[in-house]
Specification:
Elements (H helix, E strand, L loop, with lengths): L1 H30 L11 H100 L6 E3 H14 L11 H4 L6 E3 H10 L4
Antiparallel strand pairs: 1-2
Helix pairs in contact: 1-2
């Protein structure tokens, strides 16, 4: 916008200088000739002055129109050139800003994705820890003699007490003792207890 205003002011100043300069030259041409005031007096001199004045005005009109046309053509060319340069600068500035915004958006997107992945991983770890804690409490509740092993008798007793506390589980198929004892040694270790739930995809 500043560039266009500069060209408008320049064109106006240039046009004014051409017009004023042409008027000054006309005055010199008209009043500066010795022939108009020298020589003979009378009507012949007045007729000559009028004839020369009329011819001079006609010449000025023709020359002035040509000068104005040149001035207008120059201003139009300057205007077009200035607008073209200004347009290129505006497009370049907009392109640079767009690329900057696109880069910032991409970096923010990557940061947000990484943050989300980290949060999901932390949440999964937390849920796994909570699940293991609950399974440990369940195993210790079934281990009546605190020897870190659950026999078949302890397992059946814990199963009976569990269904008593949770009657809604009465008709639910409760896992068999053998499912917790893959090595069939007659006892369930804490690791075997966790292994069963791992195979079920719960931890």
């Amino acid at each position: 916008m500043k560039f266009s205003i500069f060209h408008q002011a320049f064109c106006l100043l240039f046009t004014a200088s051409v017009v004023l300069g042409q008027g000054y030259v006309d005055q010199q041409d008209y009043y500066g000739q010795d022939d108009y005031y020298g020589g003979q007096d009378g009507y012949g001199q007045e007729d000559s002055l009028y004839h020369d004045y009329a011819a001079h005005q006609e010449k000025k009109a023709q020359g002035g129109n040509g000068g104005m046309m040149k001035t207008m053509a120059f201003c139009a060319g300057s205007w077009f050139l200035g607008g073209k340069i200004h347009s290129k600068r505006a497009v370049k500035k907009a392109t640079t800003q767009f690329q900057k915004n696109q880069r910032e958006f991409y970096l923010k997107y990557v940061k947000d994705v990484n943050t989300l992945q980290t949060q999901n991983h932390e949440l999964q770890q937390y849920m796994t820890e909570v699940m293991k804690q609950k399974l440990t409490e369940e195993f210790l509740a079934a281990d009546l003699n605190n020897d870190r092993q659950v026999t078949r008798a302890e397992f059946e007793m814990y199963k009976k007490e569990y269904i008593k506390k949770h009657p809604e589980m009465q008709n639910v198929q409760f896992p068999a003792f053998e499912e917790f004892d893959p090595d069939h040694n007659g006892v369930i270790s804490m690791r075997e207890h966790e292994g069963y739930y791992e195979r079920q995809g719960l931890i």
